[in-house]
Write a structure and sequence with these properties.
The protein is mainly alpha-helical and about 220 residues long. It has helices at about 5, 10-45, 45-70, 75-105, 110-135, 140-170, 175-205, 210-215. The chain has one domain: Alpha-lytic protease prodomain-like. About 85% of the residues lie in helices and about 0% in strands. InterPro entries: Cation_efflux_TM (IPR058533), Cation_efflux_TMD_sf (IPR027469).
Length: about 220
């Protein structure tokens, strides 16, 4: 057995390659869906679709962060998780602002656009979620990415239910309620990821710099 396998280098390199390949795919999917939802939201005059398009853009940025640090040590991964928590928190604040705006200026959204594009976004995020499922427990970097994907599915299902409720009631209030729910999910996830990242940074700062920056799997 060669030194590569003895030192577990082959296994670590293989894990990084699999993580990178998955992140590239979900990055491309989210970037494409950002453009689709942005154009659809502008044409349909739908605030909900515009908000979801920004969510897709945020996820694309998150996956880009994760791809950048996939071959780096746990300190960099924890720092990237902090950045991702900040992105999720910002989107939570953005959605909260949309909820307040719609409370002040109620507007009936375009149900057809909400339903069709919402279903497309659900299918795209479902595929990303399936790809990320096997990576969710590998490290904090991939776990935070998986949490983003899970939140997207929750948001997509909520938008579809809101579209149905708006269609049945001819009222904007289901859309407003769903906006508040998505806001709560974003902010909660941002808090959880930030807390895990802070714990990881605290653990690694207590170690010598060389050990803290080394890949986590290499220290096992």
């Amino acid at each position: 057995m060669d030194d590569c396998c003895i030192n577990k280098t082959c296994a670590i390199d293989g894990l990084r390659e699999r993580q990178s390949a998955t992140l590239r795919i979900v990055l491309l999917v989210n970037a494409a869906m950002f453009l689709v939802e942005l154009v659809s939201g502008l044409l349909a005059g739908s605030v909900a679709l515009l908000a979801d398009s920004l969510d897709m853009l945020g996820d694309a940025l998150v996956y880009g962060f994760s791809l950048y640090v996939v071959s780096r040590g746990p300190v960099w991964k924890a720092r990237a998780a902090v950045a991702k928590a900040a992105v999720m928190g910002l989107f939570g604040v953005f959605v909260f602002g949309q909820v307040v705006y719609k409370l002040l200026y109620p507007q009936l959204p375009t149900v057809e656009a909400m339903g069709a594009i919402g279903a497309l976004a659900f299918a795209a995020n479902g595929a990303c979620f399936a790809l990320l499922w096997r990576h969710r427990a590998e490290d904090i970097n991939m776990r935070s990415v998986w949490l983003c994907s899970r939140n997207d599915l929750i948001a997509n299902v909520s938008v579809l239910f809101a579209a149905l409720a708006v269609w049945m009631t001819f009222s904007p209030w289901p859309d407003i309620a769903v906006g508040a729910l998505i806001c709560a999910v974003f902010l909660r996830s941002a808090f959880l990821v930030a807390r895990e990242a802070r714990a990881e940074l605290g653990l690694n700062h207590a170690q010598p710099p060389a050990a803290a920056d080394a890949p986590q799997a290499a220290r096992r």
